[in-house]
């Protein structure tokens, strides 16, 4: 049985979320997401590797082992149910719910299960990401793939990465919001929100926003 501190669990869940968003996990991305140095991140990863929770995929890249993934999914499940609770009952926004859910993700399993039942068993978090244990089918593409002039609806904010939620919360870009791609450059995507506001979205952010187009 692995006894991990909340901080060590943070590394496992961060690897899980980055992989969910980008497909691969670089050490530098973990450090950036957790706001710690590369050296500190490397030391923690070495400890997790010795516990057979993390494995090196190639130089500067890591992934979770099967055991590491199981631990991460258990925490992520609690976190995403807690996010739904904070949004639906307290009216918190995407960024706030993600932040405060960190304090609730260590509640007893029984209490989280009761909260899940109270909410009507949602299958995704407020950001559209699946709650572990559920299979959710998406008919979506990345915002970077949408053509100029196309209308679409935001369906998912991949991995709930901090760089993404800080940006989307600032402009109220959330699941269910309609957008139109106005123009595209090599560095950004200009979108018009359904309330008439235009926003310049950097491509590094746009690639993390999954949308469903009206007509394709």
What report would you give on this structure?
The chain has 216 residues and is an alpha+beta fold. The protein folds into 3 domains: 6-64, Orthogonal Bundle (Arc Repressor Mutant, subunit A), CATH 1.10.10; 81-135, Winged helix-like DNA-binding domain superfamily/Winged helix DNA-binding domain (Arc Repressor Mutant, subunit A); 141-213, SH3 type barrels (Roll), CATH 2.30.30.90. Helices cover 45% and strands 20% of the residues. The protein contains 8 helices and 9 strands. It has a 6-stranded antiparallel β-sheet with strand order 4-9-5-6-7-8. Strands 1-3-2 form a 3-stranded antiparallel β-sheet. A hairpin with a 2-residue loop joins strand 2 (54-58) and strand 3 (61-64). Helix 2 (27-34) crosses helix 3 (38-50), helix 4 (66-90) crosses helix 5 (94-104) and helix 4 (66-90) packs across helix 6. 35% of the residues are buried.
Strands ordered across the widest β-sheet: 4-9-5-6-7-8
The biggest sheet amounts to:
6 strands, antiparallel
Low-confidence stretches: none
Gyration radius, to the nearest Å?
Answer: 18 Å
Helix share of residues? 40-55%
Q: For this structure, what is the CATH class of the largest domain? A: Mainly Beta
The pLDDT mean sits at 94
Architecture of the largest domain in CATH?
Answer: Roll
Structural class: alpha+beta
Under CATH, the homologous superfamily of the largest domain reads Ferrous iron transport protein A (FeoA)
Separation of the first and last Cα atoms: 49 Å
- CATH fold description of the largest domain: SH3 type barrels
Principal-axes shape call: globular
Content of β-strand = 15-25%
- The number of helical segments is 8
Number of domains: 3
Number of separate strands: 9
């Amino acid at each position: 049985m692995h006894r991990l501190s909340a901080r060590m669990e943070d590394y496992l869940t961060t690897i899980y979320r980055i992989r969910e968003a980008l497909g691969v996990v670089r050490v530098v991305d973990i450090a950036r997401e957790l706001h710690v140095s590369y050296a500190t991140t490397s030391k923690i990863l070495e400890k997790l590797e010795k516990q057979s929770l993390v494995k090196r995929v190639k130089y500067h890249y890591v992934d979770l082992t099967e055991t590491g993934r199981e631990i991460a999914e258990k925490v992520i499940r609690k976190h995403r149910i807690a996010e739904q609770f904070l949004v639906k009952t307290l009216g918190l926004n995407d960024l706030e719910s993600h932040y405060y859910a960190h304090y609730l993700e260590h509640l007893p399993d029984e209490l989280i299960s009761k909260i899940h039942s109270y909410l009507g068993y949602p299958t995704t978090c407020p950001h559209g990401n699946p709650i572990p244990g559920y299979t959710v089918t998406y008919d979506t593409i990345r915002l970077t793939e949408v053509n100029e002039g196309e209308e679409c609806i935001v369906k998912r904010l991949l991995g709930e990465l901090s760089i993404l939620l800080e940006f989307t919360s600032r402009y109220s870009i959330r699941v269910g919001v309609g957008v139109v791609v106005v123009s595209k450059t090599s560095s950004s995507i200009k979108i018009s929100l359904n309330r008439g506001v235009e926003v310049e979205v950097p491509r590094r952010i746009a690639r993390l926003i999954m949308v469903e187009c009206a007509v394709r």
